[in-house]
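User: I'm designing a mutation panel for Response regulator transcription factor and want to avoid disrupting the core. Could you give me a predicted structure to guide residue selection? Please restate the sequence first so the numbering is unambiguous.

Assistant: Good idea. Sequence first, for numbering, then the predicted structure tokens:
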Amino acid sequence: MSPIRVLLADDHHLVRTGFRVILEIEDDIEVVGEAADGERAVGMTRALRPDVVLMDVEMPGMDGLEATRRISTDDEPGGPAVLMLTTFDRDDYLFAALRAGASGFLLKNGTPEALVDAIRVVARGDGLLAPELTRRVIATFARPGDRPGGDVGSEAALDSLTPREREVLVLVAGGASNAEIAADLHLGEATVKSHVSRVLAKLGLRDRVQAVVFAYEHGVVRPGG
């Protein structure tokens, strides 16, 4: 199996070096390049076609949020997953990253093991949020007046889901894995994977993280429900 190809984007050379040291001891991960700003990260992503871009939020010139938005909107099939990292524990960064198309969001105070695991998760097409950030997303949607502006996905697209696909969306929004959804709905995991793919395609969503945001924004699920 080919290694997961990772591009590092951070304006601090020591941070990039630290990430490289952590990642290159893993047999299934290869660091293919480094970028010190968002503009270079976009250009190197288009040139190198990594599987995962490890993206800092705050960088000079084009920041990581705008770079993520440009990478996510490129019309390239099978494009890279963007895993955002930041030192700053701020809700506006979290929601902006999700809306920009990030597949995951982690704080830099995590462990090396958590970083490696996160790269593997987003590389296989799943979305990822640190547990404390997932709780914050749900808490924010529990306060309607505090919800971040703008919608992920289309309200009209929701009507295109079959009853089964809607069931799958509800379970995805609850954080269930494909195996858990399969057990709950008495389906095979391959069938569940197909359902999830169709849900994302119909709703115009990139991954499961955006599916969670969509489900809460459009009232498909509610905190505590």
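For picking mutation sites, this is relevant: The longest strand covers residues 29-35. The mean pLDDT is 84.
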